[in-house]
Amino acid sequence: MAKKIVNIEPLFLRYKFPPPIHYEYSGGVVENQDVALVRVTCDDGQYGLGEITHGQYCYHPIVGLIEHFKELLAGRPVLEINRAWELMYGSSVFWNRQGVGIGVMGGINIAMYDLAGKLLGVPVYQLLGGLVRSRSRVYASNGLFRDPQPLVADARRARRFGFTAYKMRVVTPETLIPLVEAFKAEMPGMDLIVDAVQGSCSVPWSIAVSKQLAKELERFGVLWFEEPCRVENIEGYVEIRRSTSLNIAGAESLPTAAAFKPYLDREAFGIVQFDNSTSGFTEGLRIGSLAAVHQRPVAIHSWGSIVSALAGLHLALVMPNCAITEYGFMDHPLNDRLSVEPVRPKDGCLEAPQAPGLGVRFDDALLAEFPYVPSANTMISTAETDIRLTR
Questions:
Q1: Does domain 129-354 have CATH number 3.20.20.120?
Q2: Is the pTM here over 0.90, yes or no?
């Protein structure tokens, strides 16, 4: 008898970064590692886990939307994942073409695939059509530092962990080039990615600032320059991309292939960067295929826990045009507590996992150990800020 969904529930965790850790970037301050998971349970008690990137920024909408979609999917077969996606989208299309609703759908979609893999005893990539590669390159994502010393120290930590590529965030335009110079001097052989994070800043810089920074970054050979302007500014992306030889990457908050299409039609991105814990597997595969039609490589975005990172890995393993995927590398203990076994790259790559599903687990004791209290999030500052017009 087909296994049926009996419950869909949110699971929020919070780890507060202790001193002397101080993470900041151009849009705000990161005080906590918040993890917003969703658990889908079937009638024999087995469960799957997904992650919702939007849950790092808000709480109450996530809880309400999970309840909304639970009422729709309760009693439905676990293995009818495509039908579940179409039911969620079709029932909410009037108000849910983009944004947090799609993000919650994506988390549920990941959890359903994880559960399906566990029920069938196979890794998720087998459910997605099987491997196109046996391993995927993965990069350490942190770089939330204003000064060179902690940046280089964290990059060294990443190298010891097994990474060969590292992503840093811009804190201010003035500090960027000295930080890149320090990184390149101290970390030979390690690739660098620079994220301007202007896609989610409440007051982004002018296009002129990003064009100036892109031009200055060209001599360093960074892998890409990420989100140099507000996401909805398609023409801004086009202007920046035409002004530089750098790869320009975007845009993690675009949740669907339909949302990406006008950017690809305008050749706004050199690298397509969707967030797997927003789009899920079902829509993520569509975005990857659309990027392939436009001859664009994909770099999967994953700003969360190991649940998100492993979902990105499984996608990367089946997506022919995926160049690399992301591993959130802020310093916290949650990843090893959520994975079936420790996940460590070798020579900058992660091998195809062998565990059923994603290779993740959840112990309810974590809810007491890492309690989450809803509060205003400091990751996107709303302080009054003047628009930067020049570098």
A1: yes
A2: yes
